[in-house]
Design goal:
It is built from no helices and 17 strands. By secondary structure, the chain is an all-beta fold. It has one domain.
Length: 182
Amino acid sequence: MVTYKGRAGTFRIPGSAAVTHKLLSVFNAAGSTTIVSVDKIFVDVYMTVVKAATVPPPIIRIHRATVAPTGGTALAKVAMDSALTTNASVTLLQGASVDGTASVITHTIAAGTLISQEIAARLITAAGYEPADRVEFLDGSGGVLLRAGEGLVVEVASIAATSNPATDMWSAGIQWSEFTLP
């Protein structure tokens, strides 16, 4: 039975040069009686600096987590049906404390946990131009199930300092459902 349907979106999160940074996480606490279905994750970037054609673009990755991420800033859950109530065992974190200010989500990514990845767009000319609309992961038709003690972490991985400067701004969002088994 569906007990909650929600969406959430982060503040703008600054780039971090060649340092991999987490944009968003969702985690269903150990011992939770709720199952979470993550139906959609979306990421967008606003670029402010021209990147050389030889600079590799960042890669957006989604990993499964079996340890709760820490740090970051709590992300408000927005109900898609105000008659339903979310479970406190389901927590969301974002990589910004206020709009445009980073707040570091800490989580060690384990090997073999990659669910999906996408190469981010790259701005070669025309600073301020948004070369691609949002990147969407999962297709809204069932997504990824998170049982007790499981979560997802969305990160941006960069290998060159000039591919993800602090003036570039990332945003991420998530749509999910919570339910209990009959």
